[in-house]
Amino acid sequence: GPAPSAVPAALAAELAPPRLGRPVPAEALARGDRHVFPDGRGLPAGRGSVAQGAVLYQAQCAACHGVDGRGLTAEELVGGVGSLASAEPEKTVGSYWPHASTLFDFIRRAMPLHAPGSLKADEVYALSAWLLHANGILPAEAVLDAASLAAVRMPNRAGFVAVDDPRRPPP
Amino acid sequence: GPAPSAVPAALAAELAPPRLGRPVPAEALARGDRHVFPDGRGLPAGRGSVAQGAVLYQAQCAACHGVDGRGLTAEELVGGVGSLASAEPEKTVGSYWPHASTLFDFIRRAMPLHAPGSLKADEVYALSAWLLHANGILPAEAVLDAASLAAVRMPNRAGFVAVDDPRRPPP
Amino acid sequence: LASAPAALAQGPGEAGEDLPPWMRSPGAGFSVYGQPGPQAQRVLRRPGANRAAPGNGVAWTPLEQLEGFLTPSGLHFERHHNGVPAIDPAVHTLRIDGAVRRPLDWRLADLLRYPQRSHLGFIECGGNSNAGWNEEPIQRPVGSFHGLISTSEWTGVPLRLLLDEAGVDAQATPWVIAEGADAFAMQASLPLAKLRADGLLALWQNGEPIRPEQGYPMRLILPGWEGVTQVKWLRRLTLSAEPLMARNETSKYTELQPDGRARQFTWAIGVKSLLTTPSHGQRLDARGTYQLSGLAWSGAGRIRKVEVSADGGRRWAEAALDGPVLPRCTTRFRAAWRWDGQPAVLQSRATDETGAVQPSRAALLAARGRNGYFHYHAIVSWGVDEEGAVRHVYV
Amino acid sequence: LASAPAALAQGPGEAGEDLPPWMRSPGAGFSVYGQPGPQAQRVLRRPGANRAAPGNGVAWTPLEQLEGFLTPSGLHFERHHNGVPAIDPAVHTLRIDGAVRRPLDWRLADLLRYPQRSHLGFIECGGNSNAGWNEEPIQRPVGSFHGLISTSEWTGVPLRLLLDEAGVDAQATPWVIAEGADAFAMQASLPLAKLRADGLLALWQNGEPIRPEQGYPMRLILPGWEGVTQVKWLRRLTLSAEPLMARNETSKYTELQPDGRARQFTWAIGVKSLLTTPSHGQRLDARGTYQLSGLAWSGAGRIRKVEVSADGGRRWAEAALDGPVLPRCTTRFRAAWRWDGQPAVLQSRATDETGAVQPSRAALLAARGRNGYFHYHAIVSWGVDEEGAVRHVYV
Ligand code: HEC
Ligand code: HEC
Ligand SMILES: [Ca+2]
Ligand SMILES: [Ca+2]
Ligand SMILES: [Ca+2]
Ligand SMILES: [Ca+2]
Ligand SMILES: [Ca+2]
Ligand SMILES: [Ca+2]
Ligand SMILES: [Co+2]
Ligand SMILES: [Co+2]
Was domain A35-151 assigned CATH 3.90.180.10? Predict the structure, then answer.
């Protein structure tokens, strides 16, 4: 090959890549964000009750998940607590999900499947409340908002082993 | 890996391939063959004259190759003898092709382009005769058959260097 | 040797009278985008969608109808949760935000100006082969229960470049939350280290722009990792100290163990192989030699060795690897077998360059129980009966 | 580092109000055979057919619109002399005859029972790039004059097995005459030694049955050799002591030299490369760093090295090869260049593993004259003017 000195500095196998990313205005940043973390970060203002959720669930969800949440064309959302170590485990929101935050995050972004992103924050709180109640985790008179949802402790909270978690050295 | 002795003889990375080719009956062999070699092997019975070829050419070929064979939507077939070493070579049947056998072989299998395989042996002899005449290689009264076509010596007979010919060791 | 064809063998009839019709009149003209011919149209993906939600489900790659190690883009498996979005590439952006120095947006046109790299490799759904956990061996063609794996050349921008431009702190924020621009707004919490090591923001699939169902206009590629992490229609990467605990990394794509606890964040595909020829549903006509052909792959690197057995795993012979043997890519293996007309059980077993060996089904079940659902990669067995019928069996 | 997204940042409106429409309603369902999306539809082959004969001509692969080293089958270049035949695979056979011990016929179903092998490699038309012989540099996108090259995985039966079954005598009959089942009844006289060494009877292209325009149901593959030898729709191989001197090995695919004599039987593709980005017709917007990307290949083996120049070949820098680097296959190379706003001439130069170096245009013309027509493989030059316009130039 040519002697290194013959290689012009403006031409090489690699040069510093361009920097073409456009800064995102702070306002746009907050607006686009819908991630909800287990500690409640990301939860919006608003509130909703188990009773409100029951009505919404029948109107918007029951057609696919069944009137009692036990599943239909879409999967079951209710039941199965205590079944995980059995031969016939039932994995549901109540039996399996480690965090209530996931319920808010997921319903807001993805449900109902035919109209994702259509629910208001109050409605998502209400639906989350009803599903947690149907799973025996919240009482019938519960109302959820950012603080109370973050405080819910799910039955299977400790049920997961993070195998390749980058925060821990591999075993 | 496992010791070689553990490998059953009926299972291996390779075994003798199957032999599923079906013998071709001799009759079918001769029937299917249309290759015509420079020494005349493969030429069928039949004959055709320059005069017959002139008529056929105008009817079947001139629309694409031009009435005089000097090219139209398809390429020129006539002319250019002596031009090959010039700055503007014209490669035609007459100037470039080393063997008359190729003319018979090719016209029979591939021309006219919209109806390949439609010409009878006599017609292919006649068309070959006319094209050789138009290129100054045969006289106007010539008639071609298997023997006379094999005897034609093309002007550029010695014009090719077989670079990677497997019959010769590479240079 | 027979003599060369005799001269004058042919009569004065038409030269073409014995030719098939397609040699006697001109064929079809040129096309701007080629398609399989009508004779090959039966080689198709096999969709299986939720009847209440047509974009929710999978389409299987018909593995037993394919050869070689690549998958034509039109047959790449599909897995969508809420359909294939029709994204306008002039509007779509990739954003890197969260715990970064400079949150940034890139348009497709910007990304084309960056250095590109290719990865020729497989994508396998973490749920592929999950019928293997069933009590009874599922009676389906291999593509219809192992066909959530496909192999393509993915080309795009090394993610390291974009992450570094935004300014990341690998110690403080080891997680990146990826988000898709589909109607499911797919999420995945992923280790920054993997994205920086060999992650690509793929823009091209097998040379052309990525197909819509594979993530057009851009997709996260994480060589060797399960498909759900390789977020399609990628719109956002959010740097974070903690994982999101999204629905698809808690409720799904986690593996329930016999003790009731679940394995989470298991991303690399285990070493795996299967025979595609012969395979379930095929039939051996008669005693004699049969060519065995199959695929092997590992998320950890190259395939080192594939062995085959015809007696359910008692004795093994080494198969030939039909190169190139590339890391985190499918490798075609081949062997030959003489069938004596007796019942037999055909298997393959792959070993990768880390020394990992594909487990037997019994070993996988002993380690993981019966309800793990994901990451099934045990040895696959095809039983041959005395009539030559090939069926999926357990041994 | 910026802090993570604040809690309670969002008001009580719909969560999705800022989302693009494709995130707010379900996407398209599954399909049995995927296609490029509407946004990518401009990436198409470019047909150029004889106006009196629609199946006579070529369709170019749009090289400058592609990345990576593979070609999607739908964009594989086409070269047909009389169209694409619609062959019935149940009727079609391959025959081996002429000077053999046992003339034999095989049906497609029989051939599937033989051992298969893959070759991942390019096919290039011997007439590719022939505008390079023109007096003036042709002003066309690179795909429209160098795009008769495409790369696929070809899988099929090693020809050695079939030839040996028929019984050949390599000393007495060193030639094989191949014949296609198209309306042109394409012929090629080829050395038996090449067919036995690495010739394939390909049945599969990129995993699926060969596309009609690439030779369905079977095609001769001769790794590294010009396309005309790789006879499509193969129906017959005739063993012979002498070559046929067919029209396409005399009148065409021979290279006229300045002395009036022509080179014949030149089959291997020479070492070659070209830049696809940037390339003719593109424009540099502004001074700054540009990524250079191109393809290199050789019929003799692997690419060993590719160098790039920005000053018309005075100084060269070594490019990076984006693996895998496979024999007789295209290799993607990459480099970077800082444009200072001045006129420049971009080039690439490939060296293969035999040590062969791609010639300059002047050297190729000095060796071959101006009327060779085939096997043009000289260095390609792109001139950049002060406005950043990129044009094909000669230097
Ligand atoms: C048109 C059918 C349909 C409707 C209506 C629907 N869902 Fe769903 N839902 C699904 C499907 C299908 C899935 C599984 C998606 C996948 O493939 O991951 C699902 C998944 C879920 C899950 C996750 C279940 C788990 O175990 O992981 C939750 C929670 C959920 N839906 C809640 C709701 C709520 C709340 C509503 C009403 C606001 C709703 N769904 C309406 C079809 C529907
Ligand atoms: C419909 C148009 C058409 C018709 C009619 C036609 N040809 Fe052709 N011919 C072509 C084309 C196009 C080619 C070049 C084919 C290729 O791509 O290789 C050709 C090539 C040839 C060649 C080879 C030329 C060379 O220099 O290699 C010969 C000889 C020829 N034709 C003879 C004939 C004869 C004889 C007839 C009439 C029986 C005929 N053609 C009718 C279109 C036609
Ligand atoms: Ca179960
Ligand atoms: Ca469940
Ligand atoms: Ca000229
Ligand atoms: Ca000519
Ligand atoms: Ca996928
Ligand atoms: Ca071709
Ligand atoms: Co996993
Ligand atoms: Co050549």
Answer: no
